[in-house]
Amino acid sequence: MGLLKKKKKKKSAATMARFSGGGSSASEVSPLRPTAVTKQPPCIDHCPSGNDIRGWLTVIAQHEKTGLSLDDAQDKAWMMEAETTPFPAIMGRVCPHPCEGECNRKEKDSSVSINSVERFLGDWGIERKLALPKLDVGGPFEERVAIVGAGPSGLSCAYQLARRGYKVTVFESFEKPGGMLRYGIPEYRLPRTVIDAEVQKIVDLGVEIRYAERIGESLTLEGLRSDYDAVFVGIGAHKGWTMGIPGEDGPGVYTGTEFLHKVNAGDPVDIGRKVVVIGGGDTAIDAARVSLRLGPDSAAVSKRLGAEVHVLYRRTRAEMPAIEREIEEALEEGIAIDFLAAPVKILRDADGKMTGMTVQRMELGEPDDSGRRRPLPIEGEVYDVEADAVIMAVSQAPDWAALGGGIETKGSWLEVDDWGRTGLEGVWSGGDTLTLGLATISIGQGRKAAESIHLTLRGQEHTSPAPLPKIRPDRLKLDFYETSEPAKRQVLSPEQRLAAPFDEVDLGITAQQALEEVNRCFSCGLCFGCERCWMYCQVSVFKKVADPVPGHYYSANLATCDGCKKCAEECPCGFLDLI
Q1: Which terminal CB of the chain, N or C, has fewer other CB atoms within 10 Å?
Q2: What is the pLDDT of residues 446-466, one digit of tens each?
Q3: Which domain holds residue 378?
Q4: Are 400 and 376 spatial neighbours (Cβ–Cβ below 8 Å)?
Q5: How many angstroms separate the CA atoms of 305 and 308, rounded?
């Protein structure tokens, strides 16, 4: 990159640029004129929250070119992300970052560490006490909106409505906010101080959160529909599933969500000396690592004297849906994972006390409806494992009974349209009420529902912007960019982790690493001022603008264009096309 130059400050970035023909006649203009077209990079395209990832990476990377101080650029980047999510510090810790999986930079060396930068920005916003941005759309408004559930989807919806000027009340059945973020994710992954700090920013906008308010008891959904102008349902999926195997009805058996909720709420949990966790998702790995930290022999485990926690997963590691880094850290901590293994029954003594579990060896057959190969039992291959407690982290669903009825579901889930509207007039929904998904998906659904509620209350049409053309690696000049290694997050060693079991494990990246990482972004499909069009043009089509911003560094007088195509051919980020 190495071509940064100081420029004057500009208030806002251009999202689409067009070049002027300068008033010349068509006969004087080359048929191969350049046109500047902003394109959709895959990071943004694969962010369920809808974050302008390229925007907040490049505003920092190009801060010297645009005349911003580094602090101002990082403030601006935080504000840009806050347009679509109020939880950058939270998501920088727990999001599995599907954006990185599609990053064009993979074709050069390795993806930009987007999630690490997001976490840095989130912590920056907390440290700087930055306030969430309001949105001037004609408010404040008199309409009142009720949100059921203070999880990521409900709080996202509340934030987006409050910043537009609506009066928002959130009804939360638990004692504290966050939903699955607080009650489903262990504290060593997501400190509660981070949740509290980012939720407080939403409250500071005027959102009221009423705790220990369970719909279906003192309140009803129908009552909320009568008292409020719109209702958003985001109760989450806190009801864990059991497996229906012999012996599961009795002491020592927990669902994954029940176990994590108890621990995260500070309730006592007796799991004994040996724990078996069933499942291969994030809940299973979280439950296993928390069990290790609660167990009486966790100090012995930290000295590698033997694992006290077993995870059973009926497929292989290749199919395991849990975050890869979490699996690695569980193994480092001494947790054993038995692959191709499924529970048959829970063993109990004459007094009903759990003693162990019978396990069936499996093999993979043909793919099932999920696209993964179906696990099949191997006849005659069973074995027993000792267990004082069993945690079934196989799946979960919303507890619709807690809502007190009044809303129709399809199986375990609600059905909504593209804007989150349910079949009930005036009721929207999002998050794990629709199906199990990532927190980033829930945040995006909450935002989309808020936009729909606003449009409905204002009597406006629901429209979506025309999609931008997508840009993939074949439109980039990869050789232009220097090879570089991504930032590595600092993670405590297994010994350090188990010595302070619930202290945060992942310490993120430094400010210097963040600055180096944003400069790894290719700025796919958006001008970053590399100067190549200006340097290669022999007929002075391009002129540097006086007040550059990311995406807009040059104007062009196409009357002088001779159609050599060099500008488009040399544009490394694919911003220039030919008409």
Answers
A1: C
A2: 999 999 999 999 999 999 999
A3: 240-396
A4: no
A5: 10
